[in-house]
Each structure stands twice: as structure tokens, then as C-alpha cells.
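User: Here's a chain of 408 residues. Predict its fold as C-alpha cells.
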Amino acid sequence: MIEADHAAAAAEAAARASYGKLLAWLAWKWRDVCAAEDALSEAFAAALVHWPRQGVPLAPEAWLLTVAKRHLLMAARRRRLEQDPAVSIILPELIAPPAEDLVIPDVRLRLLFVCAHPAIDPSIHAALMLQLVLGLDAPQIASAFLVSPAALAKRLTRAKGKIRDAAIAFAEPEKRELPERVTSVLEAIYGAYSIGEAAVSETRRSDVADEAVFLAGLASDCLPGSAEAHGLCALLLYRESRRFAQRDGQHTFIPLDEQNPKHWRQPMMGDAEAHLGAAVKLGHPGPYQIEAAIQAAHMHGIVQGSTPWREIVGLYERLLQFGPTIGARIGHAIAVAYAGADPSAGLALLDAIDFSRVATHQPWWASRARLLAIAGRKEESAAAYDRAMGLTGDTAIRNWLNHCAERL
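Assistant: Prediction complete.
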């Protein structure tokens, strides 16, 4: 039992650390994302059988890659292909530099752009990328896009079926094709970071969030003329710079307006400002740039001791013109309440959101509880805080919500 538990833990750790990289490498070399996904699943299943008996290998990632490649080879031979595509992947090392002059140097970012193929339904691009490249499951992805896991799983299955049935070319897009695909790629990166932020496990949170920040930086490097690529990079860097200021010694969440700026990572903030400045100079405003500007306004306001709420309201109004997302509408409601010192105005904006879309959305309940408390409606606020606590699995956030409720 101990050996089996140890093997299962090792397989889980390997999946968490390497699934996206292994899948991206296999899919890119094999030019068949569905076959690569199946082969990697077989490799992990084999690990759960062999590792308890033979011991966990010193290089689990290499072991998994070897088994997955063997599975692909066997499948290819069964199909009796005249030209076996596996020949091209037998010799190179796992992280060998590409011999060709590639438009996108990183295999994961390259696969993101491949998944944004125009023949695939654009509405599923981001979710497909999150599953195939970063190895996230349907429930995690569904939570980021506020859809049901079952509905998302069906859409993902249909999308992968179309890739297979239509024989969509699994090749790197040309440089001229990148701008038309970048919106979906940035959406996926942002979704990955949001999922990482919401992860209960700090290890899982770091893995996914760090990967998203890294990919955002790569995207802005590959597309220096994309204002939104710079905007997303700025947004994630601003948020990431506050990571270590968001928890106290008692493992309680600390909201932005109560954080100590001394605990923010200044070099990262400087990088965020540089990317936001680069985006502004390009003269093509977009939602990620505006969200980054909202972050900057909040953070500079805290440092200066006065949050510019009216300016933040204006930024949210501009953001809503690009798309009335749930997050933007909640942020706008809070800003309106604070800018006019009138919680009822903010509550009216929150209540105007279709309840079916926020009934299980923890940030909506927490925001409503906060404004109800300011309005002196303590019983309603306490009930909203209870509802918000029941909708989060993050102990730190639950502790903070409980503290807010106790202060009533």
C-alpha cells in the first residue's frame, strides 16, 4: 500500500509539473493532438501499474515520454503508415533546441497558437488550450469561464473531434497569421492565471500562475506590436507582484486595500509599468490594458494614501464597453459605491446582474456582503457572507470572510 501510495503521489507530481510540457512536445512533433493526449494518458496509466512494483524512476518525466512515444509508434505501425512520423521524434532530447528557424521559440506558446486555428470554433479556443497545453481539467476550466463542467466537456470533445475528422493541419502558423489568433491565446493565458489564483493548493497555484506569467511575457516578446499582449503581461505582473502580501501569519486573506505595500515585489511592479507604458504608446486600447490600468490606480492610490475612485469608475466604464463581463460589472459596482460614498448605488448595480449567472459566484456574494455592511444592513450582510464562505474552498479567503462577518 505504501509503495502504491508513493507511486500515485509521484505520478500526480509528474502530471502537475510536466503534463503540459510533455503533451505540447508530443503533439507538436507528432502533429496529432488527439493521439498525443491518448498516448500520454496511457503512459500515466502504465506508471500506476509499474511504479509500485519497480519503484519510481529517477527521471519520471523521461520515463513517461518514452512510454508515450512507444504507444504512438505502435499505433502508427498498426496503421501501416508509409512514412512513420515517429522517426522525427526518436532521436531528439526532450528539451533539445529546435533546428528550424521557428516564428515562436517556445513549444507551449507555439501549441497555443496552433489551437487557435480559425477552423476551430473561436468560443472554445481558450478552453482547448487550457486543457491541451496546461493539462487543466474541465471543472477547473469551467470555473474560470462560468459555465457548467458537463457543457464544457462536451464542447471540448466536439472540438477535438473536429480537429481529427477535418484533418486540421497541426503546424505552426506563419507570422502574418499570429495577430488574428492572439486574442484567443491571451484569453487562455489569462484564464490559466485566474485558475491558478483560485487554486486551493499553493503548489498548484504557483505552477499554473507562474506558467501563465511566463507565457504572457513570451507572447509580448513574440508580438511586440500587440498592445493587448503588453497589457496582459502588465496586468498579470501587477497582480503577481502582490502574491506574498495576500496572506498573513494566521493564513487569512488580506484584501488589496489592507495590504502593506512594503511586501509588494517592486521589480515586478516596475516591469508591469514598462509593459503598460509600451501598450499605451501603441495606441490601440483594449480590455487587458484597462484592467492593468485599474490595478495600477489601486496600487498607486494605496501607496499615496488616497484611492482615485472616480478615475477607477471611468476605467471600469471603458472596460464595460469592450464587454460586460461579470468581473467587470462587480468591480464597477464597488467603484461606484466608493466614489460616491453611496453603497445603495453599488448594490443596485450588483442586483442588476442576472442572478442565474452569479448565484454560485463567490466574488459577487462577497462584494454584496461588503456593500450591505457599509449600508448598515447587517443581517443581510451576514447572510451574504455566509453564502460567500460556502462557495470557496480556499481556507484563507474563508477566514477573511468569517472575520468580516464577525466585525458586523
